[in-house]
Amino acid sequence: MNNSAMSSTEIDIELLIKNMLSPECISNPYPVYKQLRSHAPVNGLLDYPPGTVPGVDTPYPAWVVTRYEDVDYVLRNPEIFSSEDPMQANSSAPSLMLVNHDRPRHTALRNLAKMAFTPKRIHDDIVDRLRTDINKIVDRKLNAEMDFMVDVAGVIPALVMTYLMGLPPEDYKLLVRWANAFMVSSDFTPEERQACNVELFNYFVAAVGKRYADIEAGNKVSDDLMTAFINAEYEGDTLSKEEVVLFCITLVVAGAETTTYFLGNLMGVMLEDAEWFSKLKSDRSLIRPFMEECLRRDGPPQRLFRLVLQDCEISGQEIKAGDWIAFFMAAANHDENVFPEPEKFIIGRKNIAKHITFGRGIHHCLGAPLARVEAEIMLNVILDKCEGVNGELANSKRQSGGLLAYGFATLPLQLIAKRGS
Questions:
Q1: What whole-number distance in Å separates Cα of residue 221 and Cα of residue 201?
Q2: pTM to 2 decimal places
Protein backbone atom coordinates (compact mmCIF):
# COMPACT_ATOMS: atom_id res chain seq x y z
CA MET A 1 0.00 0.00 0.00
CA ASN A 2 2.86 2.35 0.86
CA ASN A 3 4.52 1.51 -2.46
CA SER A 4 1.32 2.36 -4.29
CA ALA A 5 1.04 5.71 -2.53
CA MET A 6 4.70 6.45 -3.30
CA SER A 7 4.16 5.62 -6.99
CA SER A 8 1.11 7.88 -7.15
CA THR A 9 3.04 10.76 -5.61
CA GLU A 10 5.92 10.32 -8.05
CA ILE A 11 3.56 10.33 -11.02
CA ASP A 12 1.87 13.51 -9.75
CA ILE A 13 5.20 15.29 -9.33
CA GLU A 14 6.41 14.17 -12.75
CA LEU A 15 3.22 15.55 -14.25
CA LEU A 16 3.69 18.78 -12.31
CA ILE A 17 7.20 19.18 -13.73
CA LYS A 18 5.99 18.44 -17.25
CA ASN A 19 3.17 20.99 -16.94
CA MET A 20 5.50 23.76 -15.76
CA LEU A 21 5.89 24.82 -19.37
CA SER A 22 2.15 25.10 -19.93
CA PRO A 23 0.81 28.64 -20.61
CA GLU A 24 -1.28 28.37 -17.44
CA CYS A 25 1.73 27.69 -15.23
CA ILE A 26 3.96 30.26 -16.94
CA SER A 27 1.37 32.99 -16.40
CA ASN A 28 0.89 31.99 -12.72
CA PRO A 29 3.65 29.64 -11.53
CA TYR A 30 3.41 30.28 -7.78
CA PRO A 31 0.87 27.54 -6.89
CA VAL A 32 3.12 25.02 -8.65
CA TYR A 33 6.21 26.32 -6.83
CA LYS A 34 4.37 25.86 -3.53
CA GLN A 35 3.67 22.21 -4.33
CA LEU A 36 7.26 21.63 -5.41
CA ARG A 37 8.71 23.16 -2.24
CA SER A 38 7.16 20.30 -0.27
CA HIS A 39 9.48 17.91 -2.12
CA ALA A 40 13.19 17.47 -2.51
CA PRO A 41 14.51 18.49 -5.96
CA VAL A 42 12.83 16.56 -8.77
CA ASN A 43 14.51 15.79 -12.08
CA GLY A 44 12.99 16.14 -15.53
CA LEU A 45 12.33 19.80 -16.39
CA LEU A 46 12.98 20.31 -20.11
CA ASP A 47 13.30 24.07 -20.41
CA TYR A 48 15.38 26.56 -22.37
CA PRO A 49 18.12 28.99 -21.22
CA PRO A 50 18.19 32.50 -22.72
CA GLY A 51 19.16 32.58 -26.37
CA THR A 52 18.29 28.98 -27.10
CA VAL A 53 15.54 28.21 -29.58
CA PRO A 54 12.62 25.90 -28.75
CA GLY A 55 12.08 23.54 -31.64
CA VAL A 56 15.74 23.72 -32.68
CA ASP A 57 17.87 23.25 -29.55
CA THR A 58 17.44 20.17 -27.37
CA PRO A 59 17.00 20.88 -23.66
CA TYR A 60 18.75 18.82 -20.97
CA PRO A 61 16.63 17.29 -18.17
CA ALA A 62 17.14 19.51 -15.12
CA TRP A 63 16.63 19.08 -11.39
CA VAL A 64 14.09 21.64 -10.14
CA VAL A 65 15.25 23.49 -7.02
CA THR A 66 12.62 25.68 -5.31
CA ARG A 67 13.28 26.03 -1.55
CA TYR A 68 14.93 29.24 -0.36
CA GLU A 69 17.66 27.40 1.55
CA ASP A 70 18.50 25.28 -1.49
CA VAL A 71 18.48 28.14 -4.01
CA ASP A 72 20.69 30.13 -1.65
CA TYR A 73 23.08 27.16 -1.43
CA VAL A 74 23.38 27.02 -5.22
CA LEU A 75 24.01 30.76 -5.49
CA ARG A 76 26.65 30.71 -2.75
CA ASN A 77 28.64 27.81 -4.17
CA PRO A 78 29.78 28.65 -7.72
CA GLU A 79 32.65 26.17 -7.36
CA ILE A 80 30.05 23.36 -7.29
CA PHE A 81 27.49 24.84 -9.69
CA SER A 82 28.97 26.15 -12.94
CA SER A 83 27.43 29.02 -14.88
CA GLU A 84 28.95 27.88 -18.15
CA ASP A 85 25.92 27.00 -20.22
CA PRO A 86 26.48 24.12 -22.67
CA MET A 87 23.04 24.56 -24.21
CA GLN A 88 23.54 28.21 -25.03
CA ALA A 89 27.12 27.58 -26.17
CA ASN A 90 25.82 25.09 -28.74
CA SER A 91 22.95 27.32 -29.91
CA SER A 92 22.80 30.13 -32.45
CA ALA A 93 22.79 32.68 -29.63
CA PRO A 94 25.70 34.93 -28.66
CA SER A 95 27.12 33.90 -25.28
CA LEU A 96 26.35 36.18 -22.35
CA MET A 97 29.13 37.88 -20.42
CA LEU A 98 29.43 37.24 -16.66
CA VAL A 99 26.14 35.33 -16.66
CA ASN A 100 27.80 32.34 -18.36
CA HIS A 101 31.31 32.58 -16.87
CA ASP A 102 33.00 30.97 -13.89
CA ARG A 103 36.00 31.98 -11.85
CA PRO A 104 38.73 32.96 -12.51
CA ARG A 105 37.59 34.54 -15.79
CA HIS A 106 34.36 35.74 -14.17
CA THR A 107 36.36 37.70 -11.57
CA ALA A 108 38.46 39.38 -14.26
CA LEU A 109 35.41 40.22 -16.38
CA ARG A 110 33.46 41.58 -13.42
CA ASN A 111 36.38 43.81 -12.41
CA LEU A 112 36.54 45.16 -15.96
CA ALA A 113 32.78 45.66 -16.02
CA LYS A 114 32.94 47.60 -12.76
CA MET A 115 35.47 49.97 -14.33
CA ALA A 116 32.86 50.77 -16.99
CA PHE A 117 29.66 50.39 -14.96
CA THR A 118 30.28 53.33 -12.64
CA PRO A 119 27.49 54.95 -10.59
CA LYS A 120 28.10 58.19 -12.50
CA ARG A 121 27.68 56.56 -15.89
CA ILE A 122 24.64 54.42 -15.07
CA HIS A 123 22.97 56.93 -12.76
CA ASP A 124 24.18 60.53 -12.66
CA ASP A 125 24.70 60.91 -16.41
CA ILE A 126 21.24 59.63 -17.36
CA VAL A 127 18.86 60.64 -14.57
CA ASP A 128 17.89 64.07 -15.92
CA ARG A 129 17.53 62.80 -19.46
CA LEU A 130 15.51 59.81 -18.28
CA ARG A 131 13.20 61.96 -16.17
CA THR A 132 12.60 64.27 -19.15
CA ASP A 133 11.83 61.37 -21.47
CA ILE A 134 9.53 59.64 -18.99
CA ASN A 135 7.63 62.91 -18.57
CA LYS A 136 7.16 63.04 -22.35
CA ILE A 137 6.12 59.38 -22.52
CA VAL A 138 3.53 59.85 -19.77
CA ASP A 139 2.28 63.20 -21.13
CA ARG A 140 1.47 61.58 -24.47
CA LYS A 141 -0.78 59.03 -22.78
CA LEU A 142 -2.54 60.97 -20.03
CA ASN A 143 -6.26 60.13 -19.89
CA ALA A 144 -5.90 57.83 -22.88
CA GLU A 145 -6.74 54.14 -23.07
CA MET A 146 -3.43 52.35 -23.51
CA ASP A 147 -1.54 49.13 -23.05
CA PHE A 148 0.98 50.12 -20.39
CA MET A 149 3.34 47.32 -21.49
CA VAL A 150 3.60 48.75 -25.01
CA ASP A 151 3.31 52.48 -24.40
CA VAL A 152 5.33 52.98 -21.20
CA ALA A 153 6.99 49.91 -19.67
CA GLY A 154 8.12 48.63 -23.06
CA VAL A 155 9.75 51.93 -23.99
CA ILE A 156 11.71 53.07 -20.93
CA PRO A 157 14.29 50.28 -20.41
CA ALA A 158 15.21 49.93 -24.09
CA LEU A 159 15.48 53.70 -24.41
CA VAL A 160 17.86 53.69 -21.44
CA MET A 161 20.01 51.13 -23.26
CA THR A 162 20.35 53.53 -26.20
CA TYR A 163 21.59 56.26 -23.80
CA LEU A 164 24.02 53.97 -22.06
CA MET A 165 25.63 52.71 -25.24
CA GLY A 166 25.38 55.77 -27.50
CA LEU A 167 22.93 54.19 -29.94
CA PRO A 168 20.31 56.04 -32.04
CA PRO A 169 17.26 56.52 -29.75
CA GLU A 170 14.90 55.25 -32.45
CA ASP A 171 16.64 51.86 -32.34
CA TYR A 172 14.99 51.09 -29.01
CA LYS A 173 12.24 49.21 -30.88
CA LEU A 174 14.80 46.88 -32.41
CA LEU A 175 16.33 46.23 -28.98
CA VAL A 176 12.89 45.36 -27.55
CA ARG A 177 12.24 42.79 -30.28
CA TRP A 178 15.66 41.19 -30.02
CA ALA A 179 15.50 40.99 -26.22
CA ASN A 180 12.04 39.41 -26.35
CA ALA A 181 13.25 36.75 -28.77
CA PHE A 182 16.45 36.05 -26.83
CA MET A 183 14.76 35.70 -23.44
CA VAL A 184 12.34 33.00 -24.68
CA SER A 185 9.31 34.69 -23.16
CA SER A 186 7.31 35.76 -26.19
CA ASP A 187 5.64 33.97 -29.06
CA PHE A 188 8.17 33.68 -31.89
CA THR A 189 8.68 30.95 -34.44
CA PRO A 190 12.04 29.14 -34.26
CA GLU A 191 13.05 30.89 -37.48
CA GLU A 192 12.18 34.30 -36.04
CA ARG A 193 14.19 33.62 -32.88
CA GLN A 194 17.24 32.52 -34.85
CA ALA A 195 16.96 35.52 -37.16
CA CYS A 196 16.71 37.87 -34.16
CA ASN A 197 19.81 36.34 -32.58
CA VAL A 198 21.75 36.91 -35.80
CA GLU A 199 20.42 40.47 -36.22
CA LEU A 200 21.28 41.33 -32.62
CA PHE A 201 24.84 40.04 -32.98
CA ASN A 202 25.44 41.75 -36.32
CA TYR A 203 24.02 45.05 -35.06
CA PHE A 204 26.51 45.23 -32.20
CA VAL A 205 29.40 43.95 -34.28
CA ALA A 206 28.81 46.90 -36.58
CA ALA A 207 28.24 49.44 -33.77
CA VAL A 208 31.27 48.34 -31.77
CA GLY A 209 33.40 48.13 -34.92
CA LYS A 210 32.53 51.72 -35.80
CA ARG A 211 33.35 52.89 -32.27
CA TYR A 212 36.78 51.22 -32.42
CA ALA A 213 37.41 52.82 -35.81
CA ASP A 214 36.42 56.27 -34.50
CA ILE A 215 38.71 55.91 -31.50
CA GLU A 216 41.62 54.76 -33.66
CA ALA A 217 41.03 57.67 -36.06
CA GLY A 218 41.10 60.15 -33.19
CA ASN A 219 37.47 61.15 -33.69
CA LYS A 220 35.55 62.42 -30.69
CA VAL A 221 33.39 59.69 -29.18
CA SER A 222 30.77 59.83 -26.42
CA ASP A 223 31.69 58.78 -22.90
CA ASP A 224 29.18 55.96 -22.73
CA LEU A 225 29.28 52.31 -21.70
CA MET A 226 30.43 51.10 -25.10
CA THR A 227 33.43 53.41 -25.02
CA ALA A 228 34.04 52.50 -21.38
CA PHE A 229 34.08 48.78 -22.18
CA ILE A 230 36.60 49.39 -24.96
CA ASN A 231 38.83 51.45 -22.66
CA ALA A 232 38.37 49.39 -19.50
CA GLU A 233 41.60 48.15 -17.95
CA TYR A 234 42.14 46.33 -14.69
CA GLU A 235 45.59 45.17 -13.61
CA GLY A 236 46.70 45.12 -17.23
CA ASP A 237 43.69 43.14 -18.44
CA THR A 238 41.37 44.49 -21.14
CA LEU A 239 38.38 43.27 -23.12
CA SER A 240 38.70 41.95 -26.65
CA LYS A 241 36.51 43.45 -29.38
CA GLU A 242 34.30 40.34 -29.31
CA GLU A 243 33.92 40.61 -25.52
CA VAL A 244 32.85 44.25 -25.87
CA VAL A 245 30.21 43.14 -28.39
CA LEU A 246 28.99 40.42 -26.04
CA PHE A 247 28.87 42.79 -23.05
CA CYS A 248 26.64 45.15 -25.05
CA ILE A 249 24.37 42.25 -26.03
CA THR A 250 24.24 41.00 -22.43
CA LEU A 251 23.10 44.39 -21.17
CA VAL A 252 20.35 44.63 -23.76
CA VAL A 253 18.88 41.15 -23.31
CA ALA A 254 19.27 41.07 -19.52
CA GLY A 255 18.18 44.65 -18.88
CA ALA A 256 15.56 45.64 -21.43
CA GLU A 257 13.02 42.87 -21.04
CA THR A 258 13.38 42.11 -17.32
CA THR A 259 13.01 45.77 -16.35
CA THR A 260 10.01 46.14 -18.68
CA TYR A 261 8.23 43.40 -16.74
CA PHE A 262 9.29 44.98 -13.42
CA LEU A 263 7.75 48.32 -14.42
CA GLY A 264 4.56 46.60 -15.50
CA ASN A 265 4.35 44.55 -12.31
CA LEU A 266 4.59 47.72 -10.21
CA MET A 267 1.52 49.12 -11.97
CA GLY A 268 -0.20 45.77 -11.65
CA VAL A 269 0.05 46.07 -7.86
CA MET A 270 -1.64 49.47 -8.07
CA LEU A 271 -4.53 47.96 -10.04
CA GLU A 272 -4.73 45.11 -7.54
CA ASP A 273 -5.17 47.58 -4.66
CA ALA A 274 -6.09 51.16 -5.63
CA GLU A 275 -5.06 52.45 -2.19
CA TRP A 276 -1.39 52.10 -3.09
CA PHE A 277 -1.56 55.04 -5.47
CA SER A 278 -2.76 57.49 -2.81
CA LYS A 279 -0.39 56.04 -0.19
CA LEU A 280 2.66 56.48 -2.44
CA LYS A 281 1.51 59.88 -3.66
CA SER A 282 1.24 61.24 -0.14
CA ASP A 283 4.38 59.55 1.21
CA ARG A 284 7.16 59.09 -1.34
CA SER A 285 9.36 57.36 1.26
CA LEU A 286 7.16 54.30 0.66
CA ILE A 287 8.28 54.01 -2.97
CA ARG A 288 11.48 52.09 -2.26
CA PRO A 289 9.90 49.49 0.07
CA PHE A 290 6.99 49.22 -2.40
CA MET A 291 9.48 48.41 -5.17
CA GLU A 292 11.35 45.86 -3.03
CA GLU A 293 8.20 43.98 -2.08
CA CYS A 294 7.19 43.92 -5.74
CA LEU A 295 10.61 42.51 -6.59
CA ARG A 296 10.11 39.81 -3.97
CA ARG A 297 6.51 38.85 -4.67
CA ASP A 298 6.32 39.59 -8.40
CA GLY A 299 9.98 39.66 -9.44
CA PRO A 300 10.32 39.01 -13.17
CA PRO A 301 13.41 36.70 -13.14
CA GLN A 302 12.10 33.21 -12.39
CA ARG A 303 14.99 30.81 -12.74
CA LEU A 304 18.52 30.15 -13.95
CA PHE A 305 20.43 27.01 -14.86
CA ARG A 306 23.67 25.57 -13.51
CA LEU A 307 25.89 22.63 -14.49
CA VAL A 308 26.88 20.50 -11.48
CA LEU A 309 30.67 20.11 -11.25
CA GLN A 310 30.87 17.67 -8.34
CA ASP A 311 28.59 15.23 -6.57
CA CYS A 312 26.50 17.00 -3.94
CA GLU A 313 23.29 16.78 -1.96
CA ILE A 314 20.35 19.19 -1.97
CA SER A 315 17.60 18.64 0.62
CA GLY A 316 18.67 15.01 0.94
CA GLN A 317 18.59 14.41 -2.82
CA GLU A 318 21.87 13.19 -4.32
CA ILE A 319 22.89 15.21 -7.37
CA LYS A 320 25.68 13.89 -9.59
CA ALA A 321 28.48 15.76 -11.33
CA GLY A 322 27.40 16.50 -14.89
CA ASP A 323 23.74 16.95 -13.94
CA TRP A 324 21.81 20.07 -14.93
CA ILE A 325 19.80 22.05 -12.37
CA ALA A 326 17.19 24.79 -12.69
CA PHE A 327 16.97 26.90 -9.54
CA PHE A 328 14.00 29.19 -9.09
CA MET A 329 14.68 32.51 -7.35
CA ALA A 330 10.97 33.34 -7.65
CA ALA A 331 10.00 30.15 -5.82
CA ALA A 332 12.56 30.90 -3.10
CA ASN A 333 11.08 34.39 -2.68
CA HIS A 334 7.74 32.73 -1.88
CA ASP A 335 9.12 30.24 0.66
CA GLU A 336 6.84 30.44 3.70
CA ASN A 337 9.74 29.54 5.99
CA VAL A 338 11.46 32.81 5.07
CA PHE A 339 8.66 35.16 4.03
CA PRO A 340 5.42 34.53 6.00
CA GLU A 341 2.24 34.88 3.94
CA PRO A 342 4.33 35.13 0.77
CA GLU A 343 1.39 35.74 -1.58
CA LYS A 344 0.43 38.90 0.29
CA PHE A 345 1.91 42.25 -0.69
CA ILE A 346 3.37 43.52 2.59
CA ILE A 347 5.79 46.44 2.50
CA GLY A 348 8.16 46.91 5.41
CA ARG A 349 9.03 43.23 5.82
CA LYS A 350 12.02 43.21 8.18
CA ASN A 351 13.87 40.66 6.06
CA ILE A 352 13.01 42.10 2.64
CA ALA A 353 16.74 42.42 1.86
CA LYS A 354 16.84 38.61 1.75
CA HIS A 355 14.90 38.43 -1.52
CA ILE A 356 17.07 36.99 -4.27
CA THR A 357 15.42 38.36 -7.39
CA PHE A 358 18.75 39.82 -8.54
CA GLY A 359 20.78 36.80 -7.50
CA ARG A 360 23.46 36.64 -4.83
CA GLY A 361 27.21 36.41 -4.44
CA ILE A 362 29.48 36.66 -7.46
CA HIS A 363 26.52 36.61 -9.85
CA HIS A 364 24.49 39.37 -8.20
CA CYS A 365 23.08 41.44 -11.07
CA LEU A 366 25.24 44.47 -11.91
CA GLY A 367 22.22 46.17 -13.45
CA ALA A 368 20.04 46.00 -10.31
CA PRO A 369 20.69 49.65 -9.32
CA LEU A 370 19.78 50.78 -12.84
CA ALA A 371 16.46 48.88 -12.79
CA ARG A 372 15.59 50.49 -9.46
CA VAL A 373 16.43 53.98 -10.77
CA GLU A 374 14.20 53.51 -13.83
CA ALA A 375 11.34 52.27 -11.65
CA GLU A 376 11.68 55.02 -9.06
CA ILE A 377 11.71 57.82 -11.64
CA MET A 378 8.75 56.31 -13.48
CA LEU A 379 6.68 56.03 -10.31
CA ASN A 380 7.50 59.58 -9.21
CA VAL A 381 6.59 61.02 -12.61
CA ILE A 382 3.26 59.17 -12.66
CA LEU A 383 2.50 60.21 -9.08
CA ASP A 384 3.39 63.83 -9.89
CA LYS A 385 1.24 64.02 -13.01
CA CYS A 386 -1.71 61.85 -12.12
CA GLU A 387 -4.48 61.67 -9.60
CA GLY A 388 -5.11 58.00 -10.13
CA VAL A 389 -4.88 54.91 -12.32
CA ASN A 390 -7.98 53.31 -13.84
CA GLY A 391 -7.97 49.71 -14.96
CA GLU A 392 -8.99 46.18 -14.07
CA LEU A 393 -6.51 43.36 -13.58
CA ALA A 394 -9.14 41.06 -15.07
CA ASN A 395 -8.53 42.76 -18.43
CA SER A 396 -4.78 42.15 -18.32
CA LYS A 397 -2.87 39.10 -19.49
CA ARG A 398 0.39 37.64 -18.17
CA GLN A 399 2.99 36.53 -20.67
CA SER A 400 2.86 32.77 -21.25
CA GLY A 401 5.60 32.24 -23.83
CA GLY A 402 8.33 31.00 -21.48
CA LEU A 403 9.10 30.32 -17.83
CA LEU A 404 12.08 32.68 -17.63
CA ALA A 405 10.12 35.81 -16.68
CA TYR A 406 6.93 36.71 -14.83
CA GLY A 407 5.17 39.77 -16.17
CA PHE A 408 2.31 41.17 -18.18
CA ALA A 409 1.93 40.64 -21.89
CA THR A 410 -0.84 43.27 -21.88
CA LEU A 411 -1.86 45.70 -19.15
CA PRO A 412 -4.69 48.02 -20.27
CA LEU A 413 -5.12 51.07 -18.06
CA GLN A 414 -5.64 54.83 -17.96
CA LEU A 415 -3.39 57.35 -16.25
CA ILE A 416 -5.80 60.01 -14.99
CA ALA A 417 -4.23 63.46 -15.24
CA LYS A 418 -4.28 65.84 -12.30
CA ARG A 419 -6.98 68.47 -12.61
CA GLY A 420 -5.69 71.54 -14.41
CA SER A 421 -2.80 69.69 -16.06
A1: 22
A2: 0.93
